[in-house]
Amino acid sequence: MTVGLIAYSQAKNLVEKNVSEASYQTVNQVTNNLDIVFQSYADLTLQMLIDKELQTELKVLSTTNDSYDILQSSRTISDRMSTYIMGNTTITGAAIISTDEEDGVVTAGNNNGYKGDTLTKTDWFQKTLEQDGRLVWIEPSGTGIIASKSPNSIGLARVIKAASTPYVLVMEVNLEAVLKRYQDVQLGEGSTLAIVNGAGQYVVNDDLSKLGEPHIVTLPTEGEEAKSDSKKMTTVEGSSVLAAYQTSEITGWRFVATIPVEKLVEQASIISKLTWLMVGLATIIAIAIGVLVVRTIATPLVKLRNLMVEGARGNLTVRSTITKRQDEIGQLADSFNDMMTQITSLALQTTHSAAEVLETASELTDASKKTAIAAKEIAVATDEIANGATSLAVEAERGSDLTNHMNAQMKDVISANEQMSQSAIEVDQASQQGTAYMGQLIQKTGLTEEMTRSMVEKVDALKESTGSIVKILDVLNNLTKQTNILSLNATIEAARAGAAGKGFMVVADEIRKLADQSKQSIDIVGQITAKIQGEIEETVNVLSEAYPLFQEQITSVKEANQIFLTVQAQMGHFVEKLELATSSINQLDESQSVLSEAMTNVSAVAEESSATSEEVASLSTEQLSISDGLVRLSEKLDSVSRGLKDSLSKFKVQ
C-alpha cells in the first residue's frame, strides 16, 4: 500500500512538473510571437512619426488658417496614414489628434462612430502627452478607442512634435487579431489563455465580457516573480491550477496560461485505485495465513508458556510432552526440557553452596567486628598525632613569617646604611670642595679690600683735582668779566670816534659776544664740575661705609672656612664609624639569612609531618569506614545466604 501511494504521489508530482515546464516554454514562445506582432505595430507608428510628408503637412495644419489649406492638408495626412495601415487588416483605424481642440482630428481607416472631442479628455491621451514621445499601449475600454463601432480593440499612441503644437498619433488594433495569434495553443482540458495588465486585469481573453475584470489567479506584482514564473496557485474560487506567465517586453502586459491540476492527475489516479485493490487481496491472504499459524504454532506455544509458568512457581519437575515434531516447535520443547533439567541440578548445587556461604558469612562477620574496633583505636591515635603536627606547622609558619619580616626590615636597614654611607662621602667631598672655595674667597676678598683702599685714595686725589678745576674756572670767569668791561669801553670809545671808529666798534662787539659765550661755557663747566664733585663726595662716603663691611666679610669668611675644616674632620670620623656599623649590619644580615633558612626548613618539615599525619588519619578513617562496610557486608551476606536458603527450599526438585 505504501509503495502504491508513493508511486501515485511521485507520478502526480512528475506530471505537474513536466506540464509546468512545457506550459512555461509554450507561454514563452507565445509571448515572443506576440512581441513580434506588437513590435510591428510600434515600428509602424515610428515610421509614421519620421515621415517627412506627414511632418510637413502637420506644420501647415498647425500654422494656416485657410480652410482650403486645412482641408487639403487633412486629406493628405489621411491618405498618408491609409497608405501605412492599408496592408495590415488587423488595424481598424488610426488618428492624429491635436492638443488644441480647435484644430480637430485627422483619421484614417474604418472609423465609423468616431468619438470626436472626447478623445483629448481620455486617460490614455493625457498619459501619452506625459510620456513625451514614448509609446503608450491602450487597454480595451468597452466603448472603443477611436470609434465606438470598434469596442473590442487595443491601441497604441505616441506624441508627434512636427510643429509648434504637439499631436498625438493613435492606432487601433482589432482584439480578435491578437486572439488568433494563440488560439491554436492547446494546453489541455479546462486550460485558459489570457493577457493581463500589471494590475492583474484581463486585457485580451476569449470571453470578451471579462475584459477589465481581475484574473482568476492573483499574480505577483513585485520582484523577479512578477516578470515570469511557473508554479501551482489557487484561483479565487479555491481550485488548484498550474499557472505559467511571461511579461511582454514591448507592452509590459503578461501572457498567462492556467491548467487545472485535477485534470492533469486523472491518469495518475488509476495507480491509486490499483493500490487499494491490492490492499484488499493482501488482507484476505493475511487472514488465511493467520489461521494456519494459530493452528501450527500458537497452540504449541501456549502449552509451552503454561509449563514455563508452572516452573516459575517453583515446580522444577514439569516437562514438555511435544517430542515427535522435528520443526522449530519440537526443538523448542526439547530445549525447554533440557533447561528444566539443568535448572533442577543448579538448584540442588546452589542449596549446598548457600549453606557453606552462610557458615563463612558468620565467621567473616566476627572477624570484621574485631577489625572495626582496632581501626577505631588507630583512627583516634592518628587524629591526635595529626592535630599536634598541625599545631607545630602553624607555629613554624608563624616563626617563618616573622623571620621573613625581620629579613625584609634588615634589608631596609642595609639599604638605608648604604645610602647614609654614600651621603657621608658626598658631604665629605662637599666639605673639601667648600674649604677650597673658602680659601679662594679669602684671597679674593683681600684683593677686593686692597682695591677698595686704592679706590678711596684715587677718589680723594680726584676730589682735590676737581677743587683745582673750580679755582681755574673762577679765574676764567673773572677774565670773562674784564673782557666784557673792555669791550664795553671800546664800544663807547668807538662811538666817540664817530665814523672812524665804526670798524673798531664791530670788533668790540664781537669781543663782547665772545666774552658772553665764554661765560656761558664756563658756567656749564662749573655746573658739571660741581656735579662731579658731589658724586665724588658720595662715592667717598659709600667707600668709607663699605670698607668696614669688607673687614667684617673677611672675618666671616675666615670663620666659615674654619667651620668647613671642622665639618670635614668630623665627617671623616663619621665615615669610619659608619663603616664599622655597616660591617656589623652585614654580619647580622648573614645571621638573619641562616635563621630564615632554618625556620623555612622547620616549617617545611612541620608541614610535611602535618600532611603525613593527615594522610595517615585519612587512611585510618578510610580503614575504619572499610571495616564498618565489611561488617555491614558480612551481615548482609549472612542475611542474603539465609534468604537464598529459604528461597531454594520453595523449589520442588524430587
Automatic annotation (TrEMBL):
Keywords from the named record: Cell membrane, Membrane, Transducer, Transmembrane, Transmembrane helix
Single biological process term from Gene Ontology: signal transduction
Transmembrane portions of the chain: 274-298
HAMP domain mapped to chain residues: 295-348
Alphabetized GO MF terms: transmembrane signaling receptor activity
Chief place of localization: membrane
Highest taxon in the source lineage: Bacteria
Localization (cell): Cell membrane
Cellular component, GO annotation: plasma membrane
Residue span, Methyl-accepting transducer domain: 367-617
Pfam families with a match to the protein in the record: HAMP, MCPsignal
InterPro entries: Chemotax_Me-accpt_rcpt (IPR004090), HAMP_dom (IPR003660), MCPsignal_dom (IPR004089)
Family: Belongs to the methyl-accepting chemotaxis (MCP) protein family.
Protein name, as recorded: Methyl-accepting chemotaxis protein
Protein's organism: Paenibacillus pinisoli
